[in-house]
Amino acid sequence: MTIPWPPLSSLIVVPALGALVCLAPWFSSKIDTKARFVRLWALGVSMLTLVILAAIARAATMSHGAVLGLEEAHQWIPSLGITYHLELDGLSFAFCLLTAIISLAVIAWSAKPASAGAGWYALLLLGEATVMGAFLATDLVLFYIFFEAMLLPVLGAMALWGGAQRLNASLKFLIYTMAGSALMFLAILYLGWTARAMGHTLDGNFAFEITTLASMKMLNPTEELVLGLAFLLAFAIKIPMVPFHGWLPDTYREAPHGVAAFTAALLGKVGIYAILRFMWPLFPTFMVQAGPYLAAAGAVAVVFGALVAMAQKDLRSLLAYSSISHLGFCVLGIAGVSTMAMTGAVFQAVSHGLITAALFLTVGAVIDRQGSRDFDRLGGLARSIPLTAFFLMVFSVAAVALPLTSSFVGEFLIIVGSWKLFPAWTTVALLGVVLGAVYTLTAYLRTMFGPLHDTDPRTGGDIRGFDVVVLAGLAAAIIALGIFPADLLGMISPAVEVNAVPSVVADSSVALGFSR
Amino acid sequence: MNALVPFAPVLALSIGSLGYLVSGQFLERARLTSLFALSLIAAAAYLIVGLMPMAPTLPHGFIINDFSKFFAVLACLGAFVSIIGTASSLAEEKIGMLSEYYFLMLTSLCGALVMIFASDFLTLFIGIEVASLALYCLCGARVTKESSSEAALKYFLLGCVSSAFMLFGIALWYGVTGGLAIAPINTAGPLVILSFVLMMVGLAFKIGLAPFHLWVPDVYQGAPTSVTTYMSCVVKVAAFAALFKIALNAFLLPTEWAVGILWFLSVLAMTVGNLAALQQRSVKRMLAYSSVAQAGYMLIGLVVLGDTTSVLASSVFYLTGYCAMTIGAFTVLSVLGPDADSVDDLKGLVKRSPFLATSMTLFFLALAGLPPSMAGLMGKVYLFTGALSSEFYGLAIIAVLNSALACAYYFRVPAAMLFQAPPTSEPVKVSVLSTFALTFCAATVIGIGIYPEPLVELCEAVAAVAAR
Questions:
Q1: Which of A141, B231, B287, B348 could be a cystine partner for B235, CB 3.0 to 4.6 Å?
Q2: Residues of B with Cβ-Cβ distance to A118 under 8 angstroms
Q3: Chain A touched by B461 (CB under 8 Å)
Q4: What's the average model confidence in pLDDT over A271-294?
Q5: What is the 3 state secondary structure string of A119-184?
């Protein structure tokens, strides 16, 4: 397919260049810029990225109908068979849209660490560029590069502006993810080499492009098992799935609010996305076999996350574990061959990204105001900060998947889609929904109602100005997706069907009729 | 006269460096001395690239092909950049006589070139000794510091033992074949194996492969930083050239027994190096152990050598990238002062000099194999793909787990520089020359990563002629 205009690369290049410009004053003391200008610049850049994404999608839907399917491919390292290959289909689009929105929201959010200057915006923009790259790349080596690269801005921002234990938390995060991706790195190289060894590539060279690799069907079941496990480990740590979540509480406790929002909303989604984009087409047999285990892991995560969240005394830790719980649904959704559940999982991933980012920002505002994140020192805030309380209510309600919010659509599709495949695990996950309602609403009550604990707030005041716009925008997106999900579902569903559902085992009875 | 043409680069260096001894008193001005050394190295590199193809016949004792030319140019480039990068910090290091310092450095480079060009074992041994003797003295060049003399003595004593092993191996080779040429033989008796093992011990010592790496941390730490910068690159390049040449031409790798030995050396080096580096607070010792581990990775291309030489190209590629990383990292340390060594000395460097901190971060990310400086990452893609293609799964898995483990200590230095408060807010002055060298190294580690194709093709060409 022809290269669209603006090219897909601009989604990566624009924020990356924007970040470098932010850093300019850092290198030369002669360039003295006011923090306000840097913020406006960063806002402009992330806004531009969103506009470019919209323009690309619009141009594509105008010319090809509802189905997105844009590619940009260049030779990169011909002697190693590595290409620079980006693709934007409905699946990528959903996640790219999420990335653009979340980056814009986090950059626009006014509360940031006191010492953070231009570097803050530079790292956020770099984060946006690298995550975008991970969602667009279809060459496995290119994907791996973005997969590793997206860690660094987040790590940097956390280590620079995090809490007291920030260095330990960053090191833990780094080790976990590096350990996870090391074997995937080898698995990728093995795939590239197998393609050559089987003589499938035209020029007798390695191949790393996903559609080429997937169409070869070159792996025997043992290879699928070993390579699939190597991939799965990397993504299980990134999402994180339950026994691999050791890095998450520390990271979310120590990271600044904006970074926590960014990480929670976007990094884990790369794992969900990659399982659909890479693992299902590459290892269909393995995925079908692993399905029940994945479903079990997802359902257990839903309940485990909810139970641990109940026991938390700290608002941010509660959010961290609730995130594990909600992502459990996504894992359940991508475990089985059902277009409906997979579409639901993607939708739920987008919805969870929006909601969790909004929650981290709002809760951040509460914590900053009160100087404490401990339930015992919070309470009765509804009277003193009504606007924050209102938004927290909206997002809490969205988090427990009330109808008319986006997460209702996502969880509903996942549950209905998975029901036929994994009835037991779906039931377990349903139990988690109830638990989720309990801890979320309890937390809300304990924070916002009851006696006011701290009569001398540190920074004082309700959210105001631009921050209201940010939260209102996120709330609008959540509700809009809840009421009119069909457009986005109509983009995701065919892409999921083409990419992830293996043709041999496709279950046509659960196919959706969302395509326009 | 024509017969001398192939020796022109070596002659230019050795005769030119004699100038320092003759005119030492007149050449004590820092700028002039370094400029003279740089122009000699540039002339040697020019002669290697430009004049050598005109060599009329193959001279006795030297082999001139793309393989030796590539390594020779790489050694010259490494010496050139490390001299540029560290020239301005020599005064602070209190190096006794500048003319002697540069004489020794050029002599050692001359020895390195002889090692690279040698086509028989005797020439090779002379090269090794010339390079090493000069380096022993250089390590002790910081006469006012005890650890510098200690490093020199340690390096000298252990170096002599390793030379003895090498010489014994050569003697056995002579006994079996009746000649000294680095050329294939048909027998593979126990004496040949013993000769290989002894020569490997000698070269593994020079490269710094575990278990012959014990001198590396002490020498890297004790020697003046400028000398460490130089030898971390040039010695590795020359010793690897010698190792590849011997292994491919004399012992006709891949043979089963030799592969076993090299596999073991490679795994031991990367594991021991990384585990030891985890413990270090001293950046120089950390980089020293990391060099042991990195040498283990570089050996992979030789271990997994199949019926084609193209996997050897991956080792050459990785070595090239590694030179830029290690020269860069040690240059940053030398700019920070003669005694900058502990991780604590680097705390908050970003506040004192954003340029130094950024470039050091790039070098450490490259060593760890992370973007954006992807020379290391691309090198690993290349190396591990080679290992997998030759079905060395165990080696590939051990290597990749090692490189994940290494992130734990490579992270420590950037973390100290970027995320911790500086002890003083005094800015660090970086001289123009050092800035140039660091920019060059940083551009190399990024450039090789982003556009590796030309270097990959060059390395393939080099590897193709590695075996005559």
A1: B231
A2: none
A3: no
A4: 92
A5: HHHHHHHHHHHHHHHHHHECEHHHHHHHHHHCHHHHHHHHHHHCCCCHHHHHHHHHHHHHHHHHHH
Tell me the CA distances in angstroms from A23 to A16, A46, A344, B404, B441, one per residue in order.
Answer: 11, 16, 40, 29, 21
What is the number of residues in chain A?
516
- Residues B204-244: tens digit of each pLDDT: 999 999 899 999 999 999 999 999 999 999 999 999 999 99
A259-273, A367-381, B355-369, B452-466: least confident range: A367-381
- Tell me which residue of B413, B147, B428, B93 sits closest to B278, measured CA to CA: B413
Please name the helix (run of DSSP H) or strand (run of DSSP E) that holds residue B427, with its range, or none.
none
Q: Which residue of B has its CA nearest to A197?
A: B389
Query: Which residue from A minimizes the CA distance to B310?
Result: A79
Q: Are A210 and A281 in contact (CB under 8 A)?
A: yes
- Which helix or strand (DSSP H or E) is residue A212 part of? helix A210-216
Chain B residues within an 8 Å CB radius of A156: 418
Q: If you count residue pairs, one on A and one on B, with CB atoms under 8 Å apart, how many are there?
A: 87
User: φ, ψ for residue B428 (rounded to 5)?
Assistant: -95, 130
| Angle in degrees, 0-180, between the axes of helices B375-389 and B354-368, rounded to the nearest 10 | 10
Across-strand partners of A85?
A: A73
Residue located via tokens 């653009």 = A100
Chain B segment 399-438 residues within 8 A of A by beta carbon are 400-401, 403-404, 407-408, 411, 415, 418-420
Least Cα separation, residue B111 to chain A (angstroms): 34
C-alpha closest to that of B403 among A115, A121, A375, A189: A189
Give tens-digit pLDDT for A451-482. 776 555 555 677 878 889 999 999 999 999 99
Are B384 and A192 in contact (CB < 8 Å)? no
Cβ–Cβ gap A193/B380 under 8 Å: no
Comparing CA positions, the residue from B57, B40, B75, B81 lying closest to residue B6 is B57
Indicate the SS3 state at residue A74: strand
Chain A nearest-CA residue for B391: A190
Give B58 to chain A, closest Cα distance, Å.
Answer: 32
Give the pLDDT of residue A506: 45
Residue A73 φ/ψ, nearest 5 degrees: -130, 135
How far is Cα B84 from Cα B62, in angstroms, rounded to an integer?
29
- Which residues is A89 bridged to in the sheet? A69
Complex confidence, ipTM: 0.92
pLDDT digits (tens, 9 = 90+) for B50-108: 876 665 556 678 888 889 999 999 999 999 999 999 988 888 887 777 888 999 999 99
CB contact under 8 A, A185 and B400: yes
A interface toward B at CB cutoff 8 Å? Answer: 26-27, 76-80, 82, 141, 145, 148-149, 152, 156, 159-160, 166-167, 170-171, 174-175, 178-179, 181-183, 185-186, 189-190, 192-193, 196-197, 206
Q: Between B377, B388, B411, which is nearest A174 by CB? A: B411
Task: Give domain limits for chain B.
Answer: 7-252, 255-468
Helix-helix angle B354-368:B432-450, to 10 degrees: 30
The structure's pTM equals 0.93
CA distance A1 to chain B (A): 25
Number of residues that this document lists for chain B? 468
Closest CA to A443 of A511, A374, A516, A388: A374
Q: Any residues with CB less than 8 A from the CB of A96 and at least 6 apart, and which?
A: A11, A53, A88, A132, A135, A136
As a whole number, mean pLDDT of residues B173-192 equals 85
d(CA A250, CA A242): 15
Average pLDDT of chain A to the nearest whole number = 86
CA distances from B266 to A154, A185, A255 (A): 34, 20, 39
